[in-house]
Design brief:
Structural class: alpha/beta
Helix content: 25-40%
Strand order of the largest sheet: 2-9-8-7-5-3-4
CATH class of the largest domain: Alpha Beta
Radius of gyration: 22 Å
Oligomer: single chain
Number of domains: 3
CATH superfamily of the largest domain: Type I PLP-dependent aspartate aminotransferase-like (Major domain)
CATH architecture of the largest domain: 3-Layer(aba) Sandwich
Largest sheet: 7 strands, mixed
Number of helices: 14
Bound molecules: pyridoxal-5'-phosphate
Distance between the termini: 54 Å
Length: 483
């Protein structure tokens, strides 16, 4: 099928399908409809509304209530809610349900934008935890119990702790250690486990956050498991939190007309896991091990925790999720964005994301037997063809927080003037600037525009990373407020 400017979205989707790309991006079913029958039949002829016999997500009593109970049993938690507005909606609900306006929250700087939006909407005061920049690959490392303990010393009035584990790059934090510190002070811990729906269900992957003591965790079923895009799950214990309040909030941040196709995919996914998780996860893990074996010969591209570095550990990183294959281009003549382009154009392999120094291949429960050889072969060839290059230093904004002059909400709501970024150094930024994915801000509203920010923006631009300013302006200009 030839695609023209006028081609519809459906035609584009069909043409993409015909191309036969290897999916190393979301969703976790990898378009592998052979994995389970429910993935094949979720069409408009099943797209109904809350008719008798089909239950109601906003007042579940029958089939949905039973399915969510099964999910809670699978993760071994007291309460789980299906979510049709992704981890985004679940995080908004969890944060609003656990805080009151004006509360302080301890939050990892490398959080996803959903958490920044929750803080803005709920009028929360963030105390940022800046994760260490891991030296070998320049990834944002883990949040540690020690960092949490010292932040709580300085801010004993914190009401909630939030951080991602695993991160977009698969970096895990020591949730058991963090919960021990937090619980001593009766402070609840919410783990953004959007990338970790597969964790802890079998011994093939590390334990999930709730098993390590988290009070709430949010996981995108769609990211790693075979469930349709937008589906997620929120888990909670009643410890330090009021379940009815969280329940109420889940109703606020989701459509009043949740899609039965999305809900049937969550129900199907839970049933599939109940029946076949051991063999499906064993096969996934075997494919990852096969990839590791085949990719051992890389010379310049590096694979933290994979290939020749399978099982390796790195200072600043508590653990790595093996489902993510981070491809470090730090020593390669290709940068992350170029690597992603070469894989797409020369090998029909589509990755999840790229920044200047690395790219991320996301495997999932739908990853099939073709992945190991196809990805390893492509990487080995590109490694040989493009060769080595001088190392690039990590981004400067990962290493130091800029000074804050206003709250996020105040700055985001102030009109300000649109300035060329270079001319706005020293002024207060009126917006977020991030690459999406991963949706982690280089700067947030209310922070001062520093030379480090300008250098990072320019560097990412030159590397081909598309940056987004959240007021819709191209980020070489920004909304700046006289500070
Ligand atoms: C760390 C993290 N948290 C939350 C989200 C939001 O998840 P969703 O797309 O399911 O709304 C994302 C999305 O990529 C993410 O990377």
């Amino acid at each position: 099928m030839t695609i023209t400017r006028n081609s519809s979205l459906l035609e584009r989707l069909q043409a993409h399908k015909e191309e036969g790309y290897l999916s190393l991006h979301m969703p976790g079913h990898k378009e592998n409809t052979g994995l389970a029958s429910y993935l094949n039949v979720l069409n408009a002829d099943l797209d109904i509304t809350e008719l008798p016999g089909f239950d109601d997500l906003h007042d579940p009593e029958e089939v949905l209530a039973r399915s969510m109970k099964k999910a809670a049993a699978l993760w071994d938690v007291p309460k789980s809610w299906f979510q049709v507005n992704g981890s985004t909606g679940a995080l908004l609900a969890a944060i609003r349900g656990a805080t009151r306006r004006g509360d302080k929250i301890l939050v990892a700087r490398n959080c996803h934008k959903a958490i920044y939006h929750a803080m803005e909407l709920c009028g929360l005061e963030p105390v940022f935890l800046l994760p260490p920049v891991e030296e070998t690959f320049g990834l944002s490392g883990s949040i540690t119990p020690e960092m949490v303990a010292s932040a709580l010393e300085a801010h004993p009035d914190v009401k909630l702790i939030v951080y991602p584990s695993p991160t977009y790059d698969g970096v895990l934090s020591d949730t058991a250690g963090i919960c021990a510190v937090a619980h001593e002070k009766s402070i609840p811990v919410l783990v953004d486990e959007a990338h970790g729906a597969h964790l802890g269900l079998t011994d093939h992957f590390p334990p999930h956050a709730m098993a390590q003591g988290a009070d709430m965790a949010v996981a995108s079923l769609h990211k790693m498991l075979p469930s349709l895009t937008q589906t997620a799950i929120l888990h909670a214990t009643g410890r330090f939190l009021k379940i009815p309040q969280i329940n109420r909030q889940t109703g606020i941040f989701q459509s009043s007309s949740p899609s039965y196709l999305l809900m049937a995919s969550m129900d199907g996914c839970i049933r599939l896991l109940e029946e076949q998780k051991e063999e499906l996860f064993a096969a996934w893990s075997r494919r990852l091990a096969e990839f590791d074996d085949l990719a051992k010969g890389l010379k310049h591209l590096r694979l933290p925790g994979h290939g020749g570095e399978a099982g390796a550990s790195y200072p600043g990183i508590f653990g790595l999720d093996p489902a993510k294959i981070v491809i470090s281009t730090r020593n390669s003549a290709l940068n992350g964005v170029e690597l992603m382009e070469r894989l797409r154009e020369d090998y029909k392999i589509e990755l999840e994301m790229a920044l200047d120094r690395y790219a991320v291949a996301m495997t999932g429960l739908g990853t099939d037997d073709t992945m190991p050889a196809r990805l390893a072969q492509a990487l080995l060839e590109l490694d040989e063809k493009y060769g080595p290059a001088q190392e690039v230093a990590p981004l400067e904004t990962l290493q130091e927080l800029p000074p804050r002059k206003m709250s996020i909400e105040e700055a985001a709501m102030t009109e300000g003037g649109v300035d060329f970024l270079y001319d706005s150094m020293g002024k207060v930024c009126g917006e977020y600037i991030w690459a999406y994915p991963p949706g982690i801000p280089l700067i947030t509203p209310g922070e001062v525009i520093t030379p480090a920010l300008v250098a990072d923006v320019e560097r990412l631009y030159r590397a081909g990373v598309k940056l987004i300013g959240t007021r819709g302006k191209p980020p070489y200009t920004t909304v700046a407020i006289e500070g």
